[in-house]
Amino acid sequence: VQLVESGGGLVQPGGSLRLSCAASGFTFSSYWMSWVRQAPGKGLEWVAKIKEDGSQKYYVDSVKGRFTISRDNANNSLYLQMNSLRAEDTAVYYCARGPRDSVGEFDYWGQGTLVTVSS
Amino acid sequence: SYVLTQPPSVSVAPGKTARITCEGNNIGGKGVHWYQQKPGQAPVLVIHYDSDRPSGIPERFSGSNSGNTATLTISRVEVGDEAEFYCQVWNSGTDHTVFGGGTKLTVL
Predict the structure, then answer these.
(1) Consecutive 10-residue runs of chain A (119 residues): their mean pLDDT?
(2) Is A114 on the interface with B (CB under 8 A)?
(3) What's residue B1's pLDDT?
(4) Is A106's CB within 8 Å of B101's CB?
(5) In the predicted model, is pLDDT for residue B95 greater than 90?
(6) CB contact under 8 A, A104 and B90
(7) Which listed residue, of A32, A37, A48, B15, carries a Cα 20 to 30 Å from B79's Cα?
(8) Which residue of A has its CA nearest to B36?
């Protein structure tokens, strides 16, 4: 199992960024997938999750209406479109497999991509 | 929203037993998962559903969950176990995942 994130970088407040996660080594279309972030020196925060077929999506309240999670099962890819970015969105964003059966654990994680929101 | 409370730090001598707690309202009724994160690395799942160990995780790692407290126990602690540990549950009320604030394990 391998998860490789990309797309992070420096963006101004109010700007947009699209993160990608390339998955391999497992049947991508059979798993819920999530984004989890970690602000510098802080703990883990779950951001969003998407059902195997993309039909259900859930978000933490702080990003609802600004972030959109999506997936392309044909290309084994997960995405996070981030709009109206704020300083407090600065974090390492991890792609994670799970939660298992929508309610369980995250059994594999990518290495993360850093998003910095600053003027 | 559902809150998980962990002690900021736990210290233990090599060879001893470390216990890291995770407190939440009636957490004993939920499945608790634990992650180990070393500096500069992604989290690694060490315990799922209270006490199950994923393959490749040493038997020294164990877990329990009852009442308002879940506990991760690390026996015969090694210097290489030094890391941040996080607990995680699913909150049925919001269908959201919640993480504890993390506990830094220091091996003296």
Answers:
(1) 97 98 97 97 96 96 97 98 98 95 92 97
(2) no
(3) 85
(4) no
(5) no
(6) yes
(7) A37
(8) A44
